[in-house]
Amino acid sequence: MPIRRTLLAAAALGALAAALPAHAQMELKLGHVGGPGSLFELSANEFARIANEKLAGKAKVVTFGSSQLGGDRELMQKLRLGTVDFAIPSSVMSSEVDAFGMFEMPYLVKNRQHMQKIEAEVVWPSLAPLAEAKGYKILAVWENGFRNITTNTKPIVKPADLAGMKLRVPQGKWRVKMFQAYGANPSPMALSEVFVALQTGVMDGQENPLTQIYSSKFQEVQKFLSMTGHVYTPAYLVSGARRFGSLPADVQAALAAAAKETQAYVYAQAAKLDDELLAKIKAAGVQVNEADKDAFIAASKAVYEEYAKEVPAGGALVDKAIALGKGM
């Protein structure tokens, strides 16, 4: 009987082993806050496609949009803990690493060509090492976009039009300081909460790139879109430095290559969406107006001065970025 039991046990174990895969595929989770059709969703899915081709079964990137894995702050924490493998932060980077606040400075980045120069000469040599020291590994620079203001109260032409307005802003302190300088009453809030805040009147307006405005359906609860273009926000594909470093070298190489290859697609989609989405927002009944950008630039001086005083080497980084845009 003992022999028979041993044989039966061995047979059962053999059947169990046969039912299991030879090796479980490593799943790499990418979380972001973008809704369906947003530039974040398009970027994440394209990265996953390219990465999974390069990984060839060694691992698989799986994307989770619409804040399924948390808002920006939660995702940044999960990156450091290693419970999420990748995220696409934008403005929130300035709350994690002070120097990233340079991209919160109004009208700093002129266009995507200017941004690519800044990426090469400022982001990689100066900002990326600061992020890594805080536990974040930047794999690529992508895009969130040029930001514009939507409201339910009136068109915004000059900073004075924002006086006292309850305006949702993302979780980055320099955006708050900027709109305070313009006279508004800004409140940081997770993107997933903004639609209801606008719908119920808790907020009078918000500011975002067109892709976030449209994919979040703000055109359904806002009357005016003012083309201020006040800030260009890059987005970054980021991993936790410790988590990324723990991956096999060939997996790291495939992911890093895929991240950088995705940038061209991101910029092409962003340019395409700029035109398409403005037409769609107008068609939804939103009144669109141009803003007096010179008036906004003049009102932004104090924010630049405060950033230069508060952030070590911040003034030098901003000066370098401005110099890279001369003649563009």
From TrEMBL:
The keyword Signal applies. Residues 1-24 form the signal peptide. Gene3D superfamilies: Bacterial extracellular solute-binding protein, family 7. It is found in: Cell envelope. InterPro entries: DctP_fam, TAT_signal, TRAP_DctP, TRAP_DctP_sf. One of its GO terms (cellular component) is outer membrane-bounded periplasmic space. The keyword Transport applies. It comes from the Bacteria. CDD domains: PBP2_TRAP_Siap_TeaA_like. Pfam families: DctP. Keywords: Signal, Transport. Its main location: other. GO terms for biological process: transmembrane transport. Belongs to the bacterial solute-binding protein 7 family. This is TRAP transporter substrate-binding protein. It comes from Rubrivivax albus.
